[in-house]
Specification:
It contains 13 helices and ten strands. By secondary structure, it is α/β, with parallel strands linked by helices. The chain binds zinc ion (ZN).
Length: about 325
């Protein structure tokens, strides 16, 4: 049985071409009227909202995305429980995947799995077994909806990635898995994982691709990709950066990198070693269209002529200010 995603990866490897992923879902749904703090996954089943989810998928497909992620980022039972929707885990994930499958036709549908939002014991209360079980429940819905690959993202704890991988494998052992982490804390994840450590650990899990997503914009992600590529020259790398560094405006994180800026960033991420390139929070189909155009129609950059935009030392100097900004953002999100 051939798998659409593995076939795409094989073509990319053989022909030396990048793969275009999609952009943001959450910020696009907010544009369409989703209220801050409301569960986006519920829109997968609301008769008057399903078409808005469909329209986001369509927008990215029309912009040239070869892979779209399902509207299920918060679709694990831990996050759904905050909205008393945990009993509908299977249904919400299956619906989000089924709409994507209808729109994508022969293109790749990736079943989006985000973090639980909980912390493992002993610091927190989440047990490994409960995490596996929760992610398995989500992955069963995604598989039933017809995804081609599981896409675990925005992770900061390696144990949680492992639990999600295990849960996904229990649900659908035949589907490939991608996992990306968010390196938004001085070049590390919130739980202190470095890009090199991520590669070392994740490469033991038999994943189809790994990488970085979300975070503080493409300047920091290119350093992550560079560091990952140094450790492992073989695994396909995913770069899915936010549309710039988040800025607080009226207590809300906003993103202001233009499509042109993200297009140039895409060429640099490609040169530093990324194969699967898309964007995260704050991006739109216009960003993806410009990135695709730059990646496919402009000559590739020569990596030996490039230097990292944000070298390690400067990232460390800037970290204090950034920590403060993140604390304000987190406070605003809790308030929402
Ligand atoms: Zn993001």
């Amino acid at each position: 049985m051939t798998n659409r995603f593995l076939t795409l990866l094989e073509h990319a490897r053989r022909d030396g071409v990048p793969i275009i992923i999609d952009g943001a879902m959450g910020t696009q749904l907010m544009e369409a009227g989703l209220l801050f703090g409301d569960p986006p996954e519920q829109w997968n089943v609301l008769p008057d909202k399903r078409d808005k989810v469909r329209a986001v998928y369509r927008g990215y497909l029309d912009a040239g995305s070869q892979v779209i992620l399902t509207n299920t980022f918060g679709g694990n039972p831990f996050r759904l429980k905050m909205h008393n929707l945990q009993a509908r885990t299977f249904e919400l994930n299956a619906a989000g995947a089924a709409i994507a499958r209808e729109e994508a036709a022969d293109r790749v549908v990736a079943g989006d799995i985000g973090p639980s939002g909980e912390i493992f014991e002993p610091m927190g209360t989440l047990t490994y077994a409960a995490a596996v079980e929760g992610f398995r429940a989500q992955a069963e819905g995604l598989a039933a909806g017809g995804v081609d690959v599981f896409w675990i993202e925005t992770m900061s704890d390696l144990r949680e990635v492992q639990a999600a991988v295990e849960g996904a494998r229990l649900a659908a052992p035949h589907l490939p898995i991608v996992a990306t982490m968010t390196f938004d804390t001085r070049g590390f994840t919130m739980m202190g994982v470095s890009p090199a450590q991520a590669v070392e650990e994740l490469s033991k899990l038999d994943l189809a691709a790994i990488g970085g997503n979300c975070g503080n914009g493409p300047d920091e992600l290119e350093a992550v990709i560079y560091a990952m590529r140094m450790v492992n020259s073989d695994l396909p790398l995913v770069a899915k950066s936010n549309a710039g560094m988040p800025k607080m405006v009226n207590g809300r994180a906003t993103y202001d990198a233009s499509p042109e800026v993200m297009a140039e960033a895409a060429r640099r991420l490609r040169a530093f070693g990324a194969t699967l390139i898309g964007a995260c929070c704050g991006s739109t189909p216009a960003h993806i269209r410009a990135m695709k155009e730059a990646l496919l129609n402009q000559p590739p950059l020569d990596p030996t002529t490039l230097t990292l935009t944000v070298p390690l030392a400067r990232r460390q100097e800037a970290s204090h200010e950034r920590r403060e900004r993140r604390a304000r953002r987190d406070a605003a999100q809790l308030a929402g």
